[in-house]
Amino acid sequence: AVLVRVLKNSNTLGIAIEGGGSTRQPLPRIVSIQKGGSAHNCGQLRTGQVILEVDGIPLQGREHKDAARIIAEAFKTKEKGHIDFLGKDY
Amino acid sequence: VREKRLTLPPSEITML
């Protein structure tokens, strides 16, 4: 597993995810990274990586929408200028 | 177990 810190230096996070509980892909996986988004600027996230935790919140067992909401809220909150992703290499 | 996995649906995709 690898810890990646993404700085919120763009208006968008810029990732697309698939997967979640009760699907063929039980943990959310990054399927694309948009240029110019914070994730792309960070340079350490890769398409195909599976996300285990977001800011210390485990995503195991969460439905897709729930996992997406957690990531969206982590990006939206202004309390912190970054998001920590615990990822598993692809 | 393998058959069960194959019956799981694909996931939707969300842009964040």
Describe the structure.
- The complex is a heterodimer of chains A (90) and B (16).
- By secondary structure, chain A is an alpha+beta fold.
- Chain A is 20% helix and 32% strand.
- Chain A has 2 helices and 6 strands; from the N terminus they run βββαββαβ.
- Chain A starts with a strand and ends with a strand.
- The model of chain A has no long low-confidence stretch (mean pLDDT 96).
- Chain B has 16 residues and is an alpha+beta fold.
- The radius of gyration of chain B is 11 Å and the shape is rod-shaped.
- Chain A binds chain B through residues 12-20, 22-25, 31, 34, 64-65, 68, 71-72, 75, and chain B through 5, 8-16.
- Strand 2 of chain A pairs antiparallel with strand 1 of chain B, so a sheet runs across the interface.
Core attributes:
heterodimer, A: 90 residues, alpha+beta, 4-stranded antiparallel β-sheet, two-stranded antiparallel sheet, B: 16 residues, rod-shaped
Quick rundown:
The complex is a heterodimer of chains A (90) and B (16). Chain A is an alpha+beta fold and 90 residues long.
Number of helices of chain A: 2
Strand residues, percent of chain A: 25-35%
Structural class of chain A comes to alpha+beta
Radius of gyration of chain B: 11 Å
Number of helices of chain B: 1
Provide the structure class of chain B.
alpha+beta
Query: Which parts of chain A are unreliable, with pLDDT below 50 for 5 consecutive residues or more?
Result: none
Mean pLDDT of chain A: 96
SSE order of chain A, one letter for each helix or strand: EEEHEEHE
Gross geometry of chain A: globular
Q: Quote the beta fraction of chain B.
A: 15-25%
Major β-sheet strand ordering of chain A? 1-6-4-5
Through-space gap between termini of chain A = 10 Å
- Principal-axis shape of chain B equals rod-shaped
Largest sheet of chain B at a glance?
none
What is the quaternary state of this protein? heterodimer
Proportion in helices of chain A: 10-25%
Total E-strand runs of chain B: 1
Query: How would you characterize the largest beta sheet of chain A?
Result: 4 strands, antiparallel
Could you state the order of secondary-structure elements of chain B as H and E? Answer: HE
